[in-house]
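Reopening this ticket.

The earlier resolution said the output was attached, but the attachment link was broken on my side. Pasting everything inline this time so it's all in one place.
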Amino acid sequence: GAPLEVLARALRFGDLVSLAEKVLAEDRAEEREVAHPSGQHLLVRMAPYKTETAVTRGLVITIIDLTRRRQSEHKLAESERLYRVLSENAGDLVSLHDLEGRILYASPSFGRKLGRRPEALVRVRWLELVHPDDVKVFQQALRDVIGDKEGATVEYRLRDQAGRYLWVESLTTAIRDEGGRVVQLLTTSRD
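Inline output:
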């Protein structure tokens, strides 16, 4: 193989030689991530090369290009940041439900509008929050969505933490799997 100094210059990894010395001295593998000036992210793994009789005869160096992974991680982090900004600042009540009507996610706006901590609503049946006189109209809207309808809009009353009711208009849409089956419901409500 090439001398370590040549590889160190090509990778722009000045500590490659000292890392090699450490691997040989401690007789154990090491790895380092290197950010190349070109924008590449590389993982450099170095391990002692041993013969059949367990005598160390050199080093095995493996270089893995992590650039796509780091770019994907960056995009995901940016997407999560944007989602947090939107969900924490939106005035609409946004909730995700299973097909039995249990809440899987409730946006932070539930705290501001209904005085209910979003995490306390998880697993609560949505119909427990709906005014008794409005349950039938809401259930019909859900049946429409689970059927073939793209979405259903309905006006009804939701109970806040103090037991008062707030009129809301909700748009409920179906979340479908790859086969087109409805697997969850997404509801966006505003007063």
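Reporter confirms the inline version is readable. The chain is about 35% helix and 35% strand. The mean pLDDT is 90.
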